[in-house]
């Protein structure tokens, strides 16, 4: 066994192929089928969302392929790609129990932006990743509002192991409000690891939205982590290959183990 060989980073498309086999993703959910929502956000921003079925929605009048799941009763993850030649990731956590919603809009850097070195980014005061994400918290018109979803530090210090399938196993260490470390224990990226920018949102008790933005291979991850059920569900978005010509947006779901907790 060659213990000195350096693992190679792979494309997001190749990662998706590995995650597609024997995976632990949730089945799509029909609980929102046929329902219409007006989503209100700060500064007067609104969106109209009609869920046709668990694989299709109409977003501001435009029909889109989508995926609707539910990791906890009454709370739904709705995900789709918007745009034509340039794709934008749109993910909703729609909390039908209290009339609250969180919207995550993400985009990938083009080839020129991706090619800016980490040194030049640091020297110019830029984020190390070119992947962008905007996170907005709002309410559902006509529904009784509860406590809004909000940033949290409740995951910080956790070291979790995620079994995406028998063949794909990762661990996450949630370091602080801005960064986490991932490490592939088994699977397509075995031996690889990195520390990347991330965001934590509390949705409900022991239920969190976790968003990460990778800097080496442009990647956006958006998942719900249910620490009661010890289950996750979400998606990964990136370029299919290294040529920036097409996109992939695939579902992920894992069984969770808590390995340990560090306090500072």
From TrEMBL:
Task: State whether keyword Cytoplasm applies.
Answer: no
Task: Please state every residue range assigned to the domain named Molybdenum cofactor biosynthesis protein F N-terminal.
Answer: 8-110
Q: Does the keyword Oxidoreductase apply?
A: no
Pfam families per UniProt: MoaF, MoaF_C
The protein's UniProt keywords, in alphabetical order, are: Plasmid
Q: Which residues form the MoaF C-terminal domain?
A: 149-261
Give the transmembrane region(s).
Answer: none
Spell out the protein name for this chain: Molybdenum cofactor biosynthesis protein F
């Amino acid at each position: 066994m060659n213990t000195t060989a350096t693992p190679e980073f792979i494309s997001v498309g190749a990662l998706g192929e590995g995650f597609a086999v024997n995976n632990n993703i949730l089945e799509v959910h029909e609980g929102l089928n046929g329902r219409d929502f007006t989503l209100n956000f700060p500064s007067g921003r609104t969106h109209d969302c009609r869920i046709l079925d668990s694989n299709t929605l109409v977003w501001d009048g435009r029909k889109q392929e989508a995926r609707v799941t539910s990791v906890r009763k009454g709370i739904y993850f709705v995900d789709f790609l918007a745009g034509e030649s340039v794709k934008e990731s749109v993910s909703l956590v729609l909390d039908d129990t209290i009339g609250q919603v969180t919207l995550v809009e993400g985009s990938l850097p083009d080839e020129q932006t991706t090619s800016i070195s980490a040194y030049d980014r640091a020297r110019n005061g830029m984020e190390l990743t070119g992947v962008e994400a905007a996170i907005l918290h709002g309410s559902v018109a006509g529904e009784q509002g509860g406590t809004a979803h909000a940033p949290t530090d409740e995951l910080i210090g956790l070291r979790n192991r995620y079994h995406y399938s028998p063949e794909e196993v990762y661990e996450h260490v949630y370091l602080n409000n801005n960064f986490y470390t991932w490490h592939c224990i088994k699977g397509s990226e075995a031996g690889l690891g990195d520390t990347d920018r991330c965001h934590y949102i509390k949705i409900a008790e022991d239920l969190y939205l976790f968003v990460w933005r990778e800097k080496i291979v442009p990647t956006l991850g958006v998942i719900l982590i249910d620490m009661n059920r010890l289950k996750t569900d979400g998606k990964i978005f990136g370029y299919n290959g290294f040529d920036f010509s097409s996109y992939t947006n695939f579902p992920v779901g894992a069984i969770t183990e808590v390995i340990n907790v560090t306090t500072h």
